[in-house]
Amino acid sequence: MLKAIHPLAGALALFLIGGFWLSTVTVELIGTLDQIASIKMAIPWFFLVLVPAMMAAGGSGQRLAAGFRNPRIVTKRRRMIAIASNGILILMPSAIFLALKAGEGAFDRSFYVVQTIELTAGAVNIALLGLNMRDGWRLVRNRPGQRKART
């Protein structure tokens, strides 16, 4: 079951974060202020799906990797720490700030500064999640090393 949950949860998280990023860029380039506000106010509601997906991906990944020694697994764990930190410390607070500002119609300098930070951090998370997905496929295809002896 974990072998099914892990890639599905990871793909859902990547899809949602990519969707947030792409919808933001699209609406900023060709949308109206009302459309920008609608997107920015909707994104935090998707945290109700994103956070459990990230938790499921991280938790199932930890369980699947238990007892294995493989440099790709170590790298995936380190990336997940960066992804989670980026999400909790930058992306979620930024999304909430932007939703509040957009709800007030306050598209001022602070809105666009935070928007730039959010887009940059989002692009980093998309890249890291994509790398983790690539390495996950390689691990499944190449079978990770030997199980380490449990004492």
Q: How does this structure look, described?
A:
This protein has helices at 2-30, 33-42, 47-65, 71-104, 109-142. It is mostly helical and 151 residues long. The longest helix is centred in the middle third of the chain and has 34 residues, at 71-104.
Gross morphology is elongated
Order of helices and strands: HHHHH
Which structural class is indicated by helix and strand composition?
mainly alpha
* Number of β-strand runs: 0
Low-confidence stretches: 146-151
Termini gap: 26 Å
Output the number of helix runs: 5
Q: Can you give the mean pLDDT?
A: 92
Short description:
The protein is mostly helical and 151 residues long. The protein has 5 helices and no strands.
Q: How would you summarize the topology of this molecule?
A:
Layout: H1 2-30, H2 33-42, H3 47-65, H4 71-104, H5 109-142
Name the features:
single chain; mainly alpha; 5 helices; 83% helix
